[in-house]
């Protein structure tokens, strides 16, 4: 039973409504690690993600770059500590033939990007370009293999090309193309959305194909083993997960994917504007975002039936808010702005991933640059770090820390559309013993006064940062790059093992104890 309290305070000239919440953090009960890979990203050959996003080419540009990769982007992603980057798709992956993207650039074939805008893909950004870029950023590559229009041999060769040391046809080819040592790529997707753009397959048909493809992927990488990820369910398609879990042996599959976007409707032009959304649309977007909790719970329950020891990971390798494209931009490019709505969406979703970290061991926000819920937007020589970027940067203290279980009683965020829990909280203890608490208030109008019981946590000092702005629709623009950025947070008081925190409406806070 949720307790609801409401108080009113005068702040300046206005009456500010407060709700109350109570939280217990069980500091001695942490058992599971929040894998840093939950903070993964996604870069598809889609719109301005690769070309004009990550990659500006080496000639005809004044933008500082290394081998054509923008250095301001590299720098920003390093600060974010991105643990992995998925490439080349998405839907594009099942049209991509990796041999088109190796060797001298002038000789690479030009193809049509049939999924995304019908534009010419000149293959100037290929396997070497991507894997070298990952080394520059300091992130692990996650390659998505082509099953839909590829062959078993093609995927098997790709694994050999990037992972074999020497003396095989593919490693010899790699060395001829200028790369001596293998890149040792651990993460491999075996198709993308096989139920849709990856081939419109039925789950049992895909399960058989998966068994075949994964059998011929050499599993040795460096001193370890590769991690193969089956193309997973869309949203609540539990039958997809069940069929795969039942029919694919654990010896062939290390992870199974799931995709969930926060979208109002898939109809053309029926999504919300990224910046000029109504309060109702905001509510519905958050409803979709919080649904992630139920989706993970139910997919995990199916997986538990076949894998009670949780050896196979659930990989949410596409998630985020999906809105109408910015007016005047190519509808096939999925370019959208990013507001405080996206900030709270990201914070609340990451808190959900933490809660389920025993099963959810990787996730990929869609997508990193200039596509859907991006962390970076580019225009000429300028880049915007979006509100989503700042949340992921504030939250990266949770990477590889021990999740501390939480009990929470929160007021509701109530609207004419329904109600949702207003507050979401997550906590972890890092290897140095510091406890971090991330808190999100999704309520549009009410601040939240939260009393936190710190069980088994000793500390004398609390500090933190907040991401907040006057309106949920506020966003950074190329004219005002830093309208939204983290600020020091003064709304937390620690007294013994009691912490009180006041969260303004639509805000994200990360505290350190
Ligand atoms: O992220 C955009 C697209 O959404 C991806 O290409 C596809 O996998 C999903 O449907």
In short:
The chain is 23% helix and 29% strand.
Describe the model:
The chain has helices at residues 71-80, 127-137, 152-163, 169-176, 203-215, 238-247, 279-306, 340-355, 387-395, and strands at residues 6-11, 14-26, 40-42, 65-66, 69-70, 84-87, 111-113, 119-121, 140-145, 187-190, 220-221, 224-225, 227-234, 255-262, 313-321, 360-365, 376-379, 382-385, 402-404, 406-409, 412-415, 418-421, 423-429, 435-441, 447-455, 463-468, 487-488, 492-495, 498-503, 507-512. With 513 residues, it is of the alpha/beta class. The strands form eight sheets. The chain has an eight-stranded parallel barrel with strand order 3-6-9-10-13-14-15-16, surrounded by five helices. Strands 1, 2, 20, 25, 28 and 29 form a six-stranded mixed sheet that branches. Helix 3 (152-163) crosses helix 4 (169-176) and helix 5 (203-215) packs across helix 6 (238-247). The longest helix is centred in the middle third of the chain and has 28 residues, at 279-306. The chain is globular. The relative contact order is 0.15. Residues 1-6 have low confidence and may be disordered.
């Amino acid at each position: 039973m949720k307790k609801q309290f409401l108080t009113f305070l005068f702040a300046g000239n206005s009456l500010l409504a407060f709700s109350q919440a109570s939280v217990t953090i069980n500091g001695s009960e942490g058992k599971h690690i929040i894998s840093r890979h939950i903070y993964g990203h996604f870069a598809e050959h889609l719109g301005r993600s690769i070309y004009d996003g990550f990659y500006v080419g080496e000639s005809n540009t004044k933008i500082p770059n290394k081998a054509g990769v923008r250095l301001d982007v590299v720098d920003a992603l390093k600060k974010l500590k991105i643990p992995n980057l998925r490439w080349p798709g998405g839907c594009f992956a099942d049209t991509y033939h990796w041999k088109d993207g190796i060797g001298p650039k002038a000789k690479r074939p030009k193809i049509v990007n049939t999924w995304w805008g019908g534009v010419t893909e000149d293959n100037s950004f290929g396997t070497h370009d991507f894997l070298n870029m990952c080394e520059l950023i300091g992130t692990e590559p996650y390659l998505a293999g082509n099953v839909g229009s590829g062959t078993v041999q093609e995927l098997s060769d790709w694994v050999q090309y990037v992972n074999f040391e020497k003396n095989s046809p593919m490693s010899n080819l790699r060395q001829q193309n200028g790369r001596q040592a293998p890149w040792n790529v651990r993460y491999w997707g075996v198709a993308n959305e096989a139920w849709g753009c990856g081939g419109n397959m039925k789950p049992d048909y895909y399960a058989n194909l998966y068994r075949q493809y994964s059998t011929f992927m050499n599993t040795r990488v460096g001193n370890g083993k590769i991690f193969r990820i089956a193309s997973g369910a869309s949203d609540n398609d539990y039958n997809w997960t069940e069929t795969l879990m039942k029919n694919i042996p654990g010896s062939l599959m290390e992870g199974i994917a799931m995709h969930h976007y926060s979208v109002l409707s898939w109809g053309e032009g029926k999504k919300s504007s990224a910046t000029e959304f109504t309060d109702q649309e905001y509510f519905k977007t958050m409803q979709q975002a919080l649904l992630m909790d139920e989706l993970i719970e139910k997919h995990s329950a199916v997986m538990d039936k076949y894998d009670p020891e949780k050896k196979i990971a659930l990989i949410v390798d596409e998630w985020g808010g999906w809105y109408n494209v910015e007016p005047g931009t190519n509808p096939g490019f999925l370019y959208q702005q990013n507001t405080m709505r996206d900030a709270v969406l990201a914070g609340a979703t990451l808190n959900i991933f933490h809660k389920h970290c025993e099963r959810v061991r990787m996730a990929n926000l869609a997508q990193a640059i200039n596509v859907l819920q991006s962390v970076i937007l580019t225009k000429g020589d300028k880049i915007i770090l979006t509100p989503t970027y700042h949340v992921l940067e504030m939250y990266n203290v949770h990477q590889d820390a021990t999740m501390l279980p939480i009990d929470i009683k929160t007021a509701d965020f109530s609207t004419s559309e329904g109600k949702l829990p207003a507050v979401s909280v997550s906590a972890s203890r890092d290897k140095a013993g510091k406890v971090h608490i991330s808190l999100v208030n999704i309520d549009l109008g009410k601040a939240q006064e939260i009393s936190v019981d710190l069980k088994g946590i000793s500390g004398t000092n609390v500090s933190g940062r907040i991401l907040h702005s006057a309106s949920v629709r506020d966003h950074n623009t190329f004219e005002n790059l830093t309208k939204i950025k983290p600020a020091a947070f003064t709304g937390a008081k620690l007294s013994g093992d009691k912490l009180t925190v006041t969260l303004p409406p639509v805000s994200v806070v990360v505290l350190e104890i």
